Amino acid sequence: MKAIQFKEVGGPEVMQLVEVPKPEVRPGMVRVRNHAVGINFADNFFRQGNYVVKPKLPDTPGMEGAGIIDEVGPNVEGFKPGMRVAGIGLKCYAEYSLFHANQLIPLPDFVSFEEGAAFPIQTLTAWFMLHTCHHLTPGQTVLVHSAAGGVGIVAMQLAKAAGCRVIGTVSNDDKIGVARQYGADDVINYEKTDFAEQAMKLTGGKGIDLNLDAVGKPTFEKGLKCAAPFGHIILYGRAGGPPDKLDPMRLFEKAVKVSGFILFTASSNHQLMKQGVDSCFQLMQEGKLKMLVGKTFPLAEAAEAHRFMLSRQSVGKLVLIP
Ligand SMILES: NC(=O)c1ccc[n+]([C@@H]2O[C@H](COP(=O)([O-])OP(=O)(O)OC[C@H]3O[C@@H](n4cnc5c(N)ncnc54)[C@H](OP(=O)(O)O)[C@@H]3O)[C@@H](O)[C@H]2O)c1
Question: Is the CB of 22 within 6 Å of ligand 1?
């Protein structure tokens, strides 16, 4: 089968299309013929050797995909060959990949493979942050950084569906329209405007109840400044570099709470995962949640796709087609 592989850590150029054997099915696992593969910002860290999961060289990136089950291993219940599925796994930049059965989601007919590949990581990350890490209530104001990106687009729609006001930030004016289309009541270009000052103005001096921050260094400190009393900041990424060290005494000023989030903590809890999946599919069926696949690339062009993601020009989800 065809797969993307890198033999050394480094920039997008280390990724090459190679021919490798199909992965062998093991107990508890399911092999899927991928029809679409989701690209995540973390794939960039993985390729550089900077992610929580370290590559074992030569390795293949990719943490999610959607396709048709090809073979089911021993000790797996509820899945059979021919089923349409999406899932969270490893080595997904390939024609076939293995998924633990408990990380696999049956895909409803109304969800395409491309939307399915965009679903597991960005949607569940947004849902768990809003409804597990935080408990959104109608009327709260949610600040979504990188609002036009993969997680951002979903987080804004979920926050709107929960009756919240949404303020999005983007780094260029071209993304403003998309952010508005997918739920932002207000959009701030945080390269041009101080987002903390603007957020205070937009909220009449009250501030932000929930701040979803995956940018890090350029945004975290300002996030403390524009937090509402009892506000909550969830740090779930570091696209702009890790934030400076936090003095816990800063939290006293407005009784602010800071949390970290990583999807695997939540997705390894089957009951919680099912709750998130069911809730998001329900919202998709009701037309309140739409996956935005911003651009697709052939599998062979994975390096080009990563360059595009790093250019900060992309909107929505980037998907590879094996
Ligand atoms: N903790 C978790 O479990 C988890 C799960 C999924 C994703 N994440 C994190 O969530 C963020 C979004 O992930 P995604 O896959 O949906 O990606 P994405 O939002 O589609 O793309 C990343 C975005 O980050 C922003 N950005 C800010 N500073 C940047 C920089 N120096 N270089 C490149 N981009 C920069 C860009 O938007 P603007 O320029 O418009 O801000 C860019 O579009 C990432 O930081 C990712 O690591 C975390």
Answer: no
**Do 310 and 214 reside in the same domain of the chain?**
no
For a pocket test of ligand 1, which of 37, 39, 41 has the largest count of ligand atoms closer than 8 A to its C-beta? 41
Query: What is the C-alpha separation between 217 and 215, in angstroms, rounded?
Result: 7
306 lines ligand 1 (CB under 6 A): no
CA nearest ligand 1 atom 37, residue: 146
Do 247 and 178 sit in the same domain of this protein?
A: yes
Average pLDDT, the chain: 97
Task: Kindly state whether residues 89 and 153 are assigned to the same domain.
Answer: no
In total, how many domains does the chain have? 2
pLDDT digits (tens, 9 = 90+) for 235-261: 999 999 999 999 999 999 999 999 999
**Angle between the 41-48 and 302-310 helix axes, to the nearest 10 degrees?**
110
Residues 129/159, Cβ–Cβ less than 8 Å: no
Instruction: Please tell me the distance from the alpha carbon of residue 68 to that of residue 112, in angstroms, as a whole number.
Output: 12
Of how many residues is the chain composed? 322
CA angle (200 as vertex; 199, 201 as ends), nearest 5: 90
Q: What is the pTM of this model?
A: 0.97
CATH number for the domain that contains residue 79? 3.90.180.10
* C-alpha 250 – ligand 1 centre gap (Å): 26
Cis peptide before 243 (omega within 30 of 0): no
| Ligand 1, atom 18, residue with closest C-alpha | 149
Identify the domain containing residue 44 by its residue range: 2-119+291-321
Q: pLDDT tens across 206-238, in order?
A: 999 999 999 999 999 999 999 999 999 999 999
Among positive and negative, which fits the CA dihedral 161, 183, 216, 208? negative
Q: Residue type for 106, please?
A: P
